Amino acid sequence: MQNTAPLPTTTTASKMQPFNNSLFGSFDDPLLNARAAALADIDVKNVPQLTNPLMRPHDMFSYSNYFTGIPDTSAATNIYQGLPSSSEPFDASVVVPTSSEDQMTPLQQVMAMQTYGAPPQFQYNMSHMTQHFTTSSLSTSNNITRYPIAPPTSELETDPRQLETFAEHFKQRRIKLGVTQADVGKALAHLKMPGVGSLSQSTICRFESLTLSHNNMVALKPILHSWLEKAEEAMKQKDTIGDINGILPNTDKKRKRTSIAAPEKRELEQFFKQQPRPSGERIASIADRLDLKKNVVRVWFCNQRQKQKRDFRSQFRARSAAAVMGPRVMPVVAGNGSNNNLKQGQGPYNGLPGFFD
DNA sequence: ATGCATGAGCT
DNA sequence: GCTCATGCATA
Fold first, then answer.
1. What is the pLDDT of residue A256?
2. Phi and psi for A335 in degrees, rounded to 5?
């Protein structure tokens, strides 16, 4: 509504950490196969079907959207081949959060992200993946990780219920093991899986709460599964858990974080209801009206759309709703050998009416 | 747990 | 300028 109050937004700054990742080169983790057993004790829930007006034909469907009841076995979601192995010599330190002690040069990170050094069985099937699985947020931060290994084979690997089941199981076990989400994230780098670095607490949290896109869930599952197995082992032969290294000063730069005031936020939400995808001019208009920076408004809408997709299921699940909808259109990737067949959906919006300017 | 932000790749 | 994966900062 009105922004008589102080400032519509406020920003704060805080520390930014430098690179602290390890993992590179060595990947002693043979792809393992599965874990059906590990998940056997979990129950599978039924998921209602639904549709998300925000979804567009070429959008990479989110985990939430996956729950449309429409089975999907398209290659687009099959990112992994197998699961991380657990049949290798166990190294307690792997699951022990040793804080940020790992160092990796930007170049190494880049390389680690690429599947370049991985053997064939570890590589992605380029024609079956989307950009994000090759080189997502490469320089976003000090942590690498992002998708490694091969594409998934079985449907079990991408089955939403399986993923959900695993996520729950994972969380329960993690807690049992007394490991925090942040610890898990850091420990991942120790798995030394090709292309796998550490992850943030945020991501682990989102994985557990299923607030990630389906592809993201699928990609992370084998990695977290691998960690869990090692962690379970560590639990057993617990003793020499050398939680070595540890301390690392956080003396660095800062990053601002805008805080949009409630009134402005309420208006933004109203605008969003009217049109989730405002034009640049529209955004400028809104920004001007709310006395916010245009970029802040733009990003807000981007995040809102992303959030809507992720949260969609949680908003409607556990409900009998069975609004069967038309078949979901998956991005068809032409494996033409070209080096740019990792399309990302951005086709024209064909959702519900009224969402265009 | 989640809001705001970044950056890659793509249109 | 968009989507997506992800992260820092913070409520």
1. 76
2. -75, 65
Most confident of A36-45, A118-127, A254-263, A271-280: A271-280
By C-alpha to C1' distance, C1 is nearest to A280
Stated pTM of the model:
0.56
B strand bases under 7 Å from protein CB: 1-11
**Residue A275: is it exposed, middle or buried by C-beta count within 10 angstroms (0-12/13-18/19+)?**
middle
A140 touches strand C (CB under 7 A): yes
- Distance of CA A130 to CAs A208, A219, A287, A299, A331, Å? 23, 12, 33, 22, 9
* Burial bucket for residue A103 (CB in 10 Å: 0-12, 13-18, 19+): middle
Instruction: Summarize pLDDT for A46-72 with one digit per residue, the tens.
Output: 233 334 455 554 444 444 444 433 333
Q: How far is CA A64 from CA A33, A171, A202, in A?
A: 26, 19, 18
| Chain centroid, CA A112 distance in Å | 18
